[in-house]
Design brief:
The chain contains five helices and five strands; from the N terminus they run αααββββαβα. The chain has 126 residues and is α+β, with helices and mostly antiparallel strands. The protein folds into two domains: 63 residues, Winged helix-like DNA-binding domain superfamily/Winged helix DNA-binding domain (Arc Repressor Mutant, subunit A, Orthogonal Bundle); 51 residues, Ferric-uptake regulator, C-terminal dimerisarion domain (Dna Ligase, domain 1, 2-Layer Sandwich). The strands form two sheets. The chain has a three-stranded mixed β-sheet with strand order 4-3-5, with no helix packed on it. Strands 1-2 form a two-stranded antiparallel ribbon. The chain is flat and about 50 Å long.
């Protein structure tokens, strides 16, 4: 793969933004290169993901979030406020063992987000 200037801009944007959607990455890149469009961003993210340079996670409905960091954690996404917390993947080890034993299924928790309601939102009336 050749690292074109546009690809480098996308990779740099992911590094700078942390967890970011393609739209957020596009806005960031367009500050430097206004002619780069969202299609280029999606294609570049797909390529970088296949090469292992970025990783994606689906944090709920809508576009995935991209990061350069290894996903050694699970995302907890609040339905009400949208807060995203990270917890260690090891919390899912009992589930991983149960799925392997009962279903012969190997859980990949690197792209996993669990949705629910966060502690703060549970304290507030709806």
């Amino acid at each position: 793969m050749r690292m074109t200037p546009q690809r480098q801009l996308v990779l740099d944007a992911v590094r700078e933004l942390g967890h970011a959607t393609p739209e957020q990455i596009c806005r960031h890149v367009q500050r430097t290169a206004p002619t780069v469009n969202i299609t280029t961003i999606y294609r570049t993210l797909d390529l970088l993901d296949r090469l292992g340079l970025v990783r994606h996670t689906h944090l709920g409905h809508g576009a995935p979030n991209y990061s350069v960091d290894p996903h050694e954690h699970v995302h907890l996404v609040c339905h009400r406020c949208g807060r995203v917390e990270e917890v260690p993947r090891e919390l899912l080890d009992p589930l991983r063992g149960t799925l392997a034993e009962r279903r012969g299924f190997e859980l990949d928790a690197t792209h996993l987000a669990l949705s629910g309601t966060c502690r703060d939102c549970l304290k507030e009336p709806e």
